[in-house]
Amino acid sequence: MRLPKLLTTVMAALCVALPGLAAAGIAPAQAAAAAIKLDAGSGPAGTTVTVTGTGFPKKSPGMLSAGTSTVPFTASASGYFTAAVVIPESSDPVVQVTAVSGKVSAAAPFTLTYSSPSAADPAPEVTTAPAGESTSPVPAPSSPQPGTSLLRFGVGTPGGPLASAELDEVAALAGEAPSIILSYKDFNQAPPLAELEAARSRGAVVLLTWEPWVWGAGTSQPAYSLDRITAGDFDPYLRQWGQALAAWGHPVMLRFGHEMNGNWYPWSEQLNGNGTGDYVSAWRHIHDVVASTGASNVTWVWNPNVPYWGSTPLDALYPGPSYVDAVALDGYNWGTSASWSTWVSPSQLFGDGLAQLRMLAPGKQILVGETSSAEQGGSKADWASSLVGYLAAQGDVTALTWFHFNKETDWRINSSQAAADALRSALAARRG
């Protein structure tokens, strides 16, 4: 077919012009390659990252992923999208954030900046065990050293890991999503696999509190005495938990019988017919039964309350290095919210307990399992700022978990706007 004269003239002109454009370094326009940009390139697991994408198929759906976290998106008429994704737990130091739409994809790295509590402890320096003690390797005592890992932020809320709205509120208040979520289960409850998976989908790990009692039935519960646990009365139940956790297969931090040095739970050696040595025996028995099921994904967290006058000495309750993966402390600044309490700074609250943990469990990482402050008696805002700075400066303290409850007093992050703003700013400052 013959081309019209005008079209022939235009094509001839283009044949002359294109070589000239190329010679001048001007190439014909091409579609831009797909690319994504993260608003933050590093941080702890649980960080919410806003991702901006360009060059994707126009008006087309796609999927944004970061490890196990996935979020759908739809590109605009210009191939642009923006979406937020939570960075999950990972054994790798770098998590690839990837956007895919059809055959088009782009990726960008996110660097994790913490030492995961679910990771194995580094090999300790070996010393000789004291006479009469276990012959397992004992790490040499050490002092805390300044660390480069980022103090992790965790939270406990009334609804636990399934309470998405509560956790979203905390993320907004704190300026980052919690990477640790508290959960509480008594000895009548099944393994909370749905909660574990819900936390995992948010890029978090559960600090699972396992309590040997019927919740709310008081401190006298002889059916749950520690010697009954050691005698094997609960072994079928313990195996059920171990098998379920092993089958689930992802990291979980398990703290059995927390705050055992106090006198407010029936697993205290001061109550419920328990005696000296019963707690250690029960802990070791539970550990061995659960471990026998193959639940190697469990990090065993030994978690007393901060020591106080009249509390059971910690050295009488510690099960030993081969039975514990991490240690923790619970501590609250009650201020003047109770008739017996006074205002205490973070260093006054935690200093002695941290020193005792380092003597008992040298080389183990330390978590703050529960903490908060009352408003009464001082500045909660200043206390929150001081807490983050104090703990972040401790090289072996890897996490703090805020107790976001309005219970004995208003422990919540946002009991006042000043307190919420202070915690948010302190957490941002520790990220650099």
Structure, described:
Helix 5 packs across helix 6. The N terminus is likely disordered. The radius of gyration is 27 Å and the shape is globular. The protein is of the alpha/beta class. The strands form four sheets. It has an eight-stranded parallel beta barrel. The protein has a five-stranded mixed sheet with strand order 2-8-7-4-5, with no helix packed on it. The protein has a three-stranded antiparallel sheet with strand order 1-3-6, with no helix packed on it. It has nine helices and 18 strands.
Rg, rounded, reads: 27 Å
Morphology: globular
Distance between the termini: 69 Å
**How many beta-strand runs?**
18
Beta-strand portion reads: 15-25%
The main β sheet shows up as: 8 strands, parallel, barrel
Order of helices and strands: HEEEEEEEEEEEHEHEHHEHEEHEHEH
List low-confidence stretches.
1-30, 114-148
Helix content: 25-40%
Structural class: alpha/beta
Calculate the mean pLDDT score and round it: 85
Physical arrangement of strands within the biggest beta sheet: 11-12-13-14-15-16-17-18
User: How many helices does DSSP assign?
Assistant: 9
